[in-house]
Amino acid sequence: MAKTRRSRDVVGTGLPPTTPFQRLSRVHSLMTAGDTAMAVALADSLFLSISPDAARTKVLLFLAVSMAPFAVVAPLVGPFVDRMKGGQRMVVVLVGVLRAFVLVGMASSLDSLTLFPLAFAALILGKTYAIAKSAIVPTTVNDESKFVESNSKLGQISGITGFVVAGPVAALQLIDTRAALGLGVIAFLAASLNAYRLPKMAIQVGQSDAREEEELHSPSIVAASIAMRTLRFAVGFMFFHLAFWLRKEIAGTAWFGLAIGLSGLATLGANFAGPYLRRRMRVEMMLFASLVFVVLVALFATWYDRVVGGIVLVAAVNAAAAIGRLAFEATVQRDAPDANRGKVFARFETQNQIAWVCGGLIPVIISPSGWLGFAGVVVISSVGAVLFWRAGGIVIGSRGGRARGQEHRPRSG
Asked: Are 143 and 411 in contact (CB under 8 A)?
């Protein structure tokens, strides 16, 4: 019977079976399509309606609100992602359905204050999916050396899907905002249906607090978290530094739009370059090289002290952060096999978001000149590189891609 069934599958489809990672890729693409539809559809309602000359208090309020979803995600969603009956698959299935319902609610609340709590719910659900996705990746890849490549492919899919979907959604937006949101509803429901075919695996099968804490305080993970927080701090700092600095320049809004566009392209390019870099260096060296790269470009921008230098720097910082994220996630997925990954990624996402907000606060409060802000990036990135080295991120002569004191353990769950 088994032989007959396999023969029928081959003859009927003529295609190899779909791997778990391919199914996850489909889900991620559809989730990104839904995100893009929501962002474009709500641009007039939530973003473009805010004047570029808005008071600093409004920007500070935005930074505070951007932290709010993490206040929910870290203590509540992370453990929920780990413990939910049916495993990670059911978390993604539910998130897809709930996000579709949120967009339906938004479509009927575009001119109402109800839109804002719905947008907040969308942020929480988006972060929940991001955590679940990071936790699922190790269950879809058999070889830990492929973690960077797998995370990179998901980043590539996100960038390409967002670019492809933005055009049709913008066209629908011109017709009716509800039509654009409707496309997002379809994308989220399709993602939910596809997620149901992901492997049924739960991460937490028991209490592992002692082993988990031991793994999360290993030199490799501590050093990687330092590097990632430094890069996220630089991303937040450069975004708001450029936004406020360029307001004083001729065609400042156009320059800022160019900077955002180039940053998106740089992030996409970094996701393509990630696997290439991983084949030539350890993940620890990828993190260190990202920090050094930011230092060098920031030195150039400080010396050049022109708008073009600032735009190049913000693109470089975003590219470095994308490379760093690939290496960071691979480090956690590799060196914390016994951790409850939902809770762990929720914790680190919260820390990284705090770093981004802290970086953004500085230029909002003091508004440094162009070269002084770029020099600040030199300092913070240099300090991050030194702290990364001292924490054990780089060990001269080590082999196997593991930091000092890190032994290989079989992954559980």
From this structure: no
Mean pLDDT value across the chain: 78
Residue 312 or 50, more confident: 312
Output the pLDDT for position 353: 80
Choose the weakest-confidence range: 64-78, 79-93, 205-219, 374-388: 64-78
Query: Which residue do the tokens 């820390």 mark?
Result: 351
pLDDT at 183: 93
Question: What is the spatial distance between Cα 62 and Cα 69, in angstroms, rounded to a whole number?
Answer: 12
Contact predicate 187/34, CB 8 Å: yes
Buried b (16+ CB within 10 A) or exposed e, 3-14: eeeeeeeeeeee
Query: What are the Cα distances from residue 384, in Å, to 291, 352, 373, 392?
Result: 7, 14, 17, 13
pLDDT (tens digit per residue) in 185-230: 999 999 999 988 887 665 554 555 667 667 777 888 889 999 999 9
| pLDDT at residue number 263 | 84
What CA–CA distance (Å, rounded) separates 407 from 410? 10
> What is the Cα–Cα distance from 194 to 84, expressed in whole angstroms?
19
Q: What is the pLDDT of residues 239-295, one digit of tens each?
A: 888 878 877 766 566 777 778 778 888 988 998 998 888 888 888 999 999 999 999
Question: Mind spelling out the 3-state secondary structure of the chain?
Answer: CHHHHHHHHHHHHCCCCCCHHHHHHHHHHHHHHHHHHHHHHCHHHHHCCCCCCCCHHHHHHHHHHHHHHHHHHHHHHHHHHHHCCCHHHHHHHHHHHHHHHHHHHHHCCCCCCCHHHHHHHHHHHHHHHHHHHHHHHHHHCCCHHHHHHHHHHHHHHHHHHHHHHHHHHHHHHHHCHHHHHHHHHHHHHHHHHHHCCCCCCCCCCCCCHHHHHHHHCCHHHHHHHHHHHHHHHHHHHHHHHHHHHHCCCCCHHHHHHHHHHHHHHHHHHHHHHHHHHHCCCCHHHHHHHHHHHHHHHHHHHHHHCCHHHHHHHHHHHHHHHHHHHHHHHHHHHHHCCCCCHHHHHHHHHHHHHHHHHHHHHHHHHHCCCHHHHHHHHHHHHHHHHHHHHHCCCCCCCCCCCCCCCCCCCCCCC
How far, in Å, CA of 292 to CA of 290, rounded? 6
What's the pTM value of the predicted model, to 2 decimals? 0.74
Residue type, 59: V
